[in-house]
Amino acid sequence: MIPFLDVGQTYLELQDEIDAAVAGVLTGGWFVLGPEVELFESEYAAFVGATHCVGVGNGLDALHLILRALGIGPGDEVIVPSNTFIATWLAVSYAGATPVPVEPNEATYNLDPRSLSEAITEKTRAICAVHLYGQPAAMTAINEVADAHGLHVIEDAAQAHGARHALFEVGNAGVAAAWSFYPGKNLGAFGDGGAITTQDEALANRLRALRNYGSTVKYEYEVQGFNTRLDEIQAAVLRVKLRHLVRWNQRRAVIAQVYREGLMDTPVVLPEVMDGADPSWHLFVIRSLKRDALRAGLHRRGVDSLVHYPAPPNRQSAYAPMFGDRCYPIAERMGNEVLSLPIGPHLSVRDAEAVVSAVRESLVQSG
Ligand SMILES: *Cc1c(COP(=O)(O)O)cnc(C)c1O
Questions:
Q1: Are the beta carbons of 288 and 297 closer than 8 angstroms?
Q2: What spacing in Å lies between the alpha carbon of 157 and ligand 1's midpoint?
Q3: pLDDT band at residue 115 using 50, 70 and 90 as cut-offs
Q4: At a CB cut-off of 8 Å and minimum separation 6, what does 19 contact?
């Protein structure tokens, strides 16, 4: 069986380093907002190219706190992709604002800058761009539209650790970026974790208060905050893993290349890489009109695959009361056609070649 993901494998690979890092925290006896979080924050800020990094409990909270720190709330609208993971929308709802979906470009699966203007109203405060599947969103064009309308640009970089673009820095191309360290992400903790990067010092200070009950000085509360902090054990683990992220992403890129070359002449739609982009390849997503048959064929041949995501957020019961039967056709169609092939540092080139063969055989069989 070729597994889709193997989050335990990184531990086995780095066992000595990780054991030492975790033991260091346990014997140090300091578990929340301490030296490991501070060190990770400065190391991750440097990795991204940002001046500030604020560790938080998870990626959803990272997005939520950014919106709060920008003063976005009830009566405000925030533009989100119609085809993103639901957390992007939930963060807007948490803040009391309204998510306004905009459809993606069908080639890149990312927010289509050409569709932004028609979604902007006098209530719009921000655009939340998602680097979906680890492909950098069209930040230059998105920023142009945002600047013309005086809007904040927020990056949901939860799938884009280490993604690069020649014309802008991923995670540093808007007012702030949200990162998730959920175990399955390119940089994953052994539990939940998240962070915010920004160049804006005042914003970073508000975020530091918001993650910690609204306080930066013990027992003084500037605002009504939350409790959402990256903990010391996860930060210690992330510091170790960060040193291997570039190498792991390179392995993902090699797998992606095997897939792209091996499937070029088949009827499946392959992911398109924007000019200047160097994706993190969080997911390798193909499209097929016979997606379900293909997935079943892969399963029979011992290849795990997943669908990201089967139905857009507006189709979920969580948002049905708000959106009724409004339809976002591109997101809808993607939900029916997309299929994620296994990708990650747990796979060898030989595994990737086996996946290619399994896809080709399954396509022949399903006609
Ligand atoms: C994983 C993810 C999130 C949420 O991160 P959590 O740490 O799971 O809360 C948000 N947006 C996107 C695009 C994600 O993939």
A1: no
A2: 8
A3: very high
A4: none
| Tens-place pLDDT, residues 79-109 | 999 999 999 999 999 999 999 999 999 999 9
At 32 the three-state DSSP class reads strand
Ligand 1, pocket-test mutation among 5, 7, 58, 60, most atoms within 8 A of CB: 60
Token couple for 62:
């990272």
- Residue range 166-179, pLDDT digits in tens: 999 999 999 999 99
Q: Which residue shows structure tokens 């975020």?
A: 207
C-beta 156 within 6 A of ligand 1: yes
CA-CA distance, 124 to 105, in Å (whole number)?
Answer: 21
Closest C-alpha to 271, from 173, 338, 322, 190: 338
Query: pTM higher than 0.85 for the full model?
Result: yes
Substitution site in 182, 226, 231, 340 for ligand 1 pocket (most atoms within 8 Å of beta carbon): 182
In the beta sheet, which residues pair with residue 287? 269, 338
Strand partners, 285: 340
Cα-to-centroid distance, 158 and ligand 1 (Å)? 5
